[in-house]
């Protein structure tokens, strides 16, 4: 009996390093990192398609109408100032003064500015191929009051005389972008007189900014009672955003729109409807005390583009952004799937070749190419479901041939489905994505530790041989 035991022990071949669990773990780990190369190509493909979408949308927007920036209306009054130049005669040393007149401009903002803004966003009518842009038509209706300009506030050593103020050469001016998108005419009625704005050639610091002015008018006659109401209506075809400078001493603005998820930006946030699910109507109430600029300027009109209230009309998270977020979890999906296969291999004593691991890894990467290609022609949810179901079925059927049964392949299919569902939930969440992700990974780690707690990592191969 003792001789038979010794004979059995002598017949056992010593386990080589490449047959050990350590070597298998190293090879599977290296394969995971190798598969990151094609996964990176998939991420590049998603980025390339996203860039193509941006280019097409930019082209659509440029033809339809770009973003809208509105700054006005402003009273622009020319006045004459005199420059005194000292001249000394070299021979006689006599001192004389030469006075040179030149024209400067004073700019006055309205006392009250009320804006009624209606924006209708349409994402279906403007598209090219599979790409579409959120373009809008807007109706801007401004009302307010103007007071007669007061030059006494000009900070200078010399007072501006009334005779040097050219009241009859006053113009009303606005600064705006996207004059290409203006529909019809732009008219202002002030003091009962209707005036039309015309674009003028002028270089401004703000890119794509244009200046529009009316014909000269006698502002003193229009403001005969020292103040007068005005109204201005202008219609735009635009895209992406609409921003307005609150130049009134008291500015009130109300915006209504059919867009479901606006982005309120700029220097002032609105009050929206009481229902959190609704963003419109939005209302702004801005006093001159709330902004760091005055009601009148001399010599030059300042750039106030940093002090607007702005509404953005863009898709918050599009399909490419969601696909990119899904691809970032590719390493996690591949690693956890390989871990499940390795644990099953260790527990069931079934040998899985490194080539078979490679086929499973490539199937997991194909999920992302399927996702982006299907999503481009449908919704992200449908693309995710179809791509996930296809990969789960493929790996499940492949596992049946590898693991020679139905129990473990069924477990793998359920685990992979749960993993894809978990990642989908994380992608959809914004505020709680980190919390849910951390809890989920903690649970997964605990499950792996529980399953692997009784595995004899040193003798599992030899046990397999004995079995």
UniProtKB/TrEMBL annotation:
Residue stretches spanning the membrane: 21-42, 329-347, 354-374, 380-401, 408-427, 433-451
Signal peptide (UniProt feature, chain positions): none
One Pfam family cited in the UniProt record for this chain: CreD
Swiss-Prot/TrEMBL keywords: Membrane, Transmembrane, Transmembrane helix
Cellular-component GO terms for this entry: plasma membrane
Protein's UniProt keywords contain Oxidoreductase: no
InterPro entries: Uncharacterised_IM_CreD (IPR010364)
NCBIfam families, A to Z: PRK11715.1-1
PANTHER family per UniProt: INNER MEMBRANE PROTEIN CRED
Identification of the protein by name: Cell envelope integrity protein CreD
Organism listed in the record: Flavobacterium rakeshii
């Amino acid at each position: 009996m003792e001789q038979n035991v010794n004979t059995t022990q002598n017949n056992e071949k010593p386990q080589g390093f490449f047959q050990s669990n350590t070597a298998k773990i190293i090879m599977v780990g290296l394969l995971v990192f190798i598969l990151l190369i094609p996964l990176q190509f998939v991420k590049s493909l998603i980025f390339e398609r996203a860039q193509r979408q941006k280019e097409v949308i930019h082209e659509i927007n440029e033809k339809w109408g770009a973003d809208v920036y509105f700054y006005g209306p402003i009273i622009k009054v020319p006045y004459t100032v005199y420059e005194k130049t000292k001249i000394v005669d070299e021979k006689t040393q006599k001192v004389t003064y030469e006075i040179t007149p030149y024209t400067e401009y004073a700019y006055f903002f309205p006392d009250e500015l009320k804006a009624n803004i209606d924006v209708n966003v349409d994402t279906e009518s403007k598209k090219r191929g599979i790409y579409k842009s959120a373009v809008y038509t807007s109706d801007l209706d401004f009302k307010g009051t103007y007071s007669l300009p007061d030059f006494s506030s000009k900070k200078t050593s010399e007072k501006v005389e009334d005779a040097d103020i050219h009241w009859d050469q006053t113009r009303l001016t606005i600064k705006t972008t996207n004059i290409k998108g203006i529909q019809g005419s732009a008219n202002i009625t002030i003091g009962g007189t209707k005036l039309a704005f015309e674009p003028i050639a002028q270089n401004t610091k703000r890119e794509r900014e244009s200046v529009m002015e009316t014909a000269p008018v006698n502002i003193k006659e229009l403001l005969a009672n020292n103040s007068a109401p005005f109204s201005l209506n202008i219609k735009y075809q635009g895209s992406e955003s609409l921003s307005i400078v609150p130049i009134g001493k008291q500015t009130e603005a109300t915006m209504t729109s059919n867009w479901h998820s606006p982005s309120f930006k700029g220097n002032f946030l609105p009050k929206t409807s009481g229902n959190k699910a609704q963003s419109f109507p939005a209302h702004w109430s801005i006093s001159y005390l709330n902004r760091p600029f005055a009601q009148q300027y001399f010599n030059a009109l300042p750039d106030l583009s940093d002090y607007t209230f702005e509404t953005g009309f863009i898709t918050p998270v599009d399909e490419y952004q969601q696909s990119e977020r899904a691809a970032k979890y590719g390493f996690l999906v591949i690693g956890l799937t390989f871990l499940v296969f390795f644990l099953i291999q260790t527990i069931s004593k079934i040998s899985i070749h490194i080539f078979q691991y490679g086929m499973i890894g490539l199937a997991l990467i194909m999920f992302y190419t399927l996702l982006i290609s299907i999503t481009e022609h449908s919704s992200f949810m449908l693309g995710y479901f179809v791509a996930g179901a296809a990969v789960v079925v493929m790996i499940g059927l492949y596992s049946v041939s590898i693991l020679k049964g139905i129990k473990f392949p069924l477990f793998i299919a359920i685990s992979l489905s749960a993993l894809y569902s978990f990642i989908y939930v994380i992608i959809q969440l914004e505020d709680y994505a980190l919390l849910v992700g951390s809890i989920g990974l903690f649970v997964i780690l605990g499950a792996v530790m529980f399953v692997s707690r009784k595995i004899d990592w040193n003798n599992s191969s030899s046990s397999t041989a004995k079995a």
